[in-house]
Design brief:
2 copies of one chain form a homodimer. Chain A is an alpha/beta fold. Chain A contains 14 helices and 11 strands. The first copy, chain A, has 2 domains: 165 residues, Rossmann fold; 181 residues, Dehydroquinate synthase-like - alpha domain (Dehydroquinate synthase-like, alpha domain), CATH 1.20.1090.10. The interface between A and B is large, with 38 and 38 residues.
Chain lengths: 352, 352
């Protein structure tokens, strides 16, 4: 495994990633550093970062409580106030140390503060390592709509240090595997086959690296998300809608669980459209449920679900546009889907 | 006068600009259009736009009260809510019809809504026509700091229609001339000479066009504001600080008036540093005061002024960095300036 060259920045991967970070910081000579973290990355990861990079001992630490509900404008305004009070200038570095919530939030805050200050990601969850840290997309949730305010902004670098996975509980590791399965389904049948039983996977590093490579190939072809990059959104049209509805009801749901359900539902639609066979659909559904456990019945009011779906960024001119599998290992984008197909998929899901 | 090709988009200039807009809209076929305006552009300009572009008769109109104090996060969140309620999608166009406040605000809102929806500017003030509409910079004021949250984002096109100047009062026309004088001072001595008496200028179109050409040449060399583009900020380090302080005190000040004072002050610093001669300084000061009228004494507490200056985006590692004239028609950037030089300039200004 080597480093990955993305769109104007490098992703450093491996057990020595924090040493690469130290060299990077010495070379760049930022006027000051802020480290954004949550209570988990603060306790379990920050000490390792500071040991590897002694100059970060004097960095300003900003702690945000973990959880998607804090990926909000309120959190942003609180932290921008800190930046202004502390006189952060255009040469101040923001280090996002945490999972997907931290990188989404920190990437957005940095990209608009003083029209953009430099930032880097140090992902600490499997989900952030395998997916969120690469590609420059960031965002916050607004009015109950996932990532409805955000930018696509280039980090200065990304440092993926797989040993941080040891700080996670099983629940959060599983959550991250969902995006690895998604990458396999949309782009790599061989990886899908290799993932047949993740309980047999010892060190997930090779799968994380392969996911990043696959994602990078797609992102480089369409950095601004106008065309083929949309395939990365497979499972996320319905996944995000479900996630938003559960959050609106004041309940917790991991992003991975919602996307897992979304992938099953959207595979059903792909089957209805005869993009994939019934056999493929059954294989996908069975494998996902066996690996991630059955998702509870989706109890949502159809109109509420459609309301959320109506905010999906891929929609165009009042029609729903999904990314749908063409087969295991390949995905189409901008496919028009109608309400009937969506309801049919949900009914099948709830019956199963 | 022709159109101007900027960084990936075209600026259409002239009395027929609204016809170009009509062709543009027919070609692009956006799923829907929102028009952002203030009470003035709504009353005086929107009817002309709709006559030239009949399809905009069914556009959604969003009115923001005029004034810099509305270039705020509160305004943004109110309008993003409208966007979500109205199901604005990624193919929705935002048309910013107004002065610099409208283009700054609308450009920012569009650039982060759903990670960026298309937007265009139709500037209606001299300031917006000659300066703000070109270059992609946008932003809102946050915690009393001008443009402290924003992005650099590419509009789809800009349409400059000089006849809209007839809708402005004399006060607002003068306000816009300040940025034309700034362009002359930093980049074109010939234009500076030609501007010796603007009361003799009948149609200002040629000066607006020349300002845009000069600005475009600079922006194309440094679109992301990392180097020579900073010369465009001449007069704005102290200008923005003064503007913020006056606004904090609950008083009104036109951007142009603040920048005019800023240019005189920063020219004094350039003279202290022997970048320009005493004769040049006197010529600049005399001409600006004769044209724009004397600015009132700057009564501000030195510490408050330094506090505001400390937030300037050009600062680096705790030092003040200004863009200072090298001579009339040329400007240096990233010049380190100290408190003593700043105070000396203010004392000279207040004595005059």
């Amino acid at each position: 495994m080597a480093n990955i060259k993305s769109n104007g920045y490098t992703l450093y991967f491996g057990n020595n990633a924090l040493l690469s970070l130290n060299s990077f910081l010495i070379k760049r000579n930022y006027s000051r550093c802020f480290i954004l973290c949550d209570e988990n990355s603060l306790q379990h990861c920050l000490p390792h970062v500071v040991i590897a990079c002694p100059q970060l001992g004097k960095a300003d630490i900003i702690e945000v409580e973990s959880g998607e509900q804090n990926k909000s404008m309120e959190t942003c305004t609180n932290i921008w106030e800190i930046f202004l009070e502390q006189k952060a200038d255009k040469n101040t570095l923001l280090i996002n140390l945490g999972g997907g919530v931290i990188s989404d939030l920190g990437g957005f805050m940095a990209s608009v503060f003083k029209r953009g200050i430099p930032f880097i990601h140090i992902p600490t969850s499997l989900l952030a390592m395998a997916d969120a840290c690469l590609g420059g997309k960031n965002g916050i949730d607004f009015m109950g709509i996932k990532n409805s305010i955000g930018t696509i902004a280039r980090p200065e670098a990304v440092f993926v240090c797989p040993p941080f996975l040891n700080t996670l509980d099983e629940h959060h590791v599983l959550n991250g595997w969902v995006e690895v399965f998604k990458m396999a389904l949309i782009a790599d049948k061989k990886m899908w086959n290799a993932l047949s039983d993740i309980t047999q996977v010892g060190d997930p590093s090779a799968f994380i690296f392969r996911s990043l490579e696959l994602k990078n190939n797609i992102v480089l072809k369409d950095p601004l998300d106008n065309a083929q990059r949309k395939v990365l959104n497979f499972g996320h049209s319905l996944g995000h809608a479900i996630e938003s509805l559960v959050m609106d009801a004041g309940e917790d749901i991991l992003h991975g669980a919602a996307v897992c359900a979304g992938m099953i539902l959207e595979s059903h639609i792909a089957m209805q459209k005869k993009f994939i066979t019934a056999k493929d659909y059954t294989e996908i559904k069975t494998r996902l449920i066996r690996t991630f456990g059955p998702m509870k019945t989706i109890p949502f009011d159809k109109n509420e679900l459609l309301e959320k779906l109506g905010q999906d960024k891929k929609n165009k001119a009042g029609t729903y546009r999904f990314s749908l599998l063409k087969k295991i290992g390949a995905c189409a984008y901008d496919v028009e889907v109608n309400q009937k197909q969506i309801f049919k998929a949900i009914e099948a899901y709830n019956k199963a």
